[in-house]
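We include this case.
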Amino acid sequence: MPKIVDHAERREQIAQVACQVVSEHGFEHATVARIAKAAGYTTGMVAHYYDSKQQIILASLRLMLRRVESRLMRRHERGVDDLLSVLAETLPIDAQRHTECAFWMAFWGHVSADRRLRRLNAWVHREYMRLYARCFDAHWPASTRWPKSVRDTVLKSTVTFINGLTASAVTSPADWPATAQLAQLRQQLEMLRAWAESRQTRAAANS
């Protein structure tokens, strides 16, 4: 009896391997042939599932987003009400997340020179903003009452800070253990919240 192949699982496996290959060898050297070899397939087999390297990278991006969203939502379902603990799921604080973040770093390094990658990055950014907004709604409910300009600034500042912290932790891991990353994120959230609440108070006094 012929073996039943789960094609969706195989596509996901290739996307996962591509993430690992990109994180280890960089974007340019993550060729289809290298990805196929790491996955234990021929290039022809990989081509059966993906027409190009860009399609593989897009699948990897989607896989990483699904994993981040899954971790964030699991935290929410467990009743975790600490925004710091939830957002820490996106930081390179363990081996798997370090690989994922290294993949993002390699991808970002090529965005400015490639129009197609810029479009992908714009989509990724919108999805991340959507996820972070949901986290703020769930764990900082007071943020829903902030003026829109204040809320938008806090969200954008948080994303920008996490991206910068991720870059530092991936490129200089010895300088950025998990404890140091969490401490910096905690401080940033405290400052942003204090700033937002002061703006809300000022807006209320002027109304």
